[in-house]
Design goal:
221 residues, alpha+beta, Four Helix Bundle (Hemerythrin (Met), subunit A), 2 domains, 6-stranded antiparallel beta sheet, 41% helix
Length: 221
């Protein structure tokens, strides 16, 4: 047994903050249309499962790009704090269609391979593998630059000593290291906006350490 109730436009006209496919980062989006479903199902003699789902057509308030937002959850989705967890999906994916750096062929062979595989994981909605790949890129840069240390934490700090990184750059990489650790050891799937920003940082690193120095040496002899 069970039941389902459907309502329309309960949240139409409201604004939500989500990543935009065109703008840089998170922007306000207006909900143009919405359909809300709530229901319950009898699982056992003394137990009911309650669930809810919302489908929305949204428009970026900055560039007017139209996209689709889906929310879902049920009474079984509860976090450690006892609060309900709501799952959000955006279409098209905010990482879908990400292009590799135009000059990634200038990267060392192993680094180019792990970088391309990480971009592929992002585009194929594999957030755990993408998180692990971001960490692997940092590991590979550290190895290629002969950074010393018993773990990645110390290797990143040694890159500052070797003047490969600034201290500010190292601080950012430590945040990405933690992101990669949680993906590898806790199988944590980070949000697309987090992974996209992390890849932006990683690509900036690759350009600063490998690609721009190559072009500079060719141009300013």
């Amino acid at each position: 047994m069970g039941s389902k109730n459907i309502t329309s436009d309960k949240h139409a006209g409201e604004q939500v903050k989500v990543a935009c496919t065109q703008c840089a980062g998170v922007t306000n989006h207006e909900i143009l249309k919405s359909v809300e479903e709530v229901g319950w199902a009898e699982i056992g003699p003394d137990y009911d499962l309650h669930w809810g789902a919302t489908k929305q057509i949204i428009k970026c308030c900055g560039c007017d790009t139209i996209s689709f937002r889906s929310l879902s959850g049920n009474s079984e989705d509860v976090g450690p704090d006892g609060e309900g967890i709501e799952h959000e999906e955006l279409y098209p994916s905010r990482t879908e269609g990400r292009q590799c750096l135009g000059d990634d062929h200038l990267l060392p062979t192993d680094l180019e391979r792990v970088y391309r595989e990480t971009v592929s994981a992002l585009n194929n909605k594999q957030p755990v593998l993408a998180g692990i790949g971001i960490r692997a890129i940092i590991e590979t840069v550290s190895k290629e630059k002969n950074a010393s240390g018993r773990d990645l934490f110390n290797k990143i700090n040694d890159l500052v000593t070797k003047r490969v990184l600034t201290q500010e750059g190292a601080d950012i990489l430590h945040k990405l290291r933690v992101l990669g650790n949680s993906a590898a050891h806790e199988v944590k799937a980070h949000k697309p906006v987090e992974l996209n920003l992390a890849m932006d940082v990683v690509e900036h690193l690759l350009q600063a350490v490998y690609i721009l120095p190559f072009h500079a040496s060719r141009t300013f002899k």
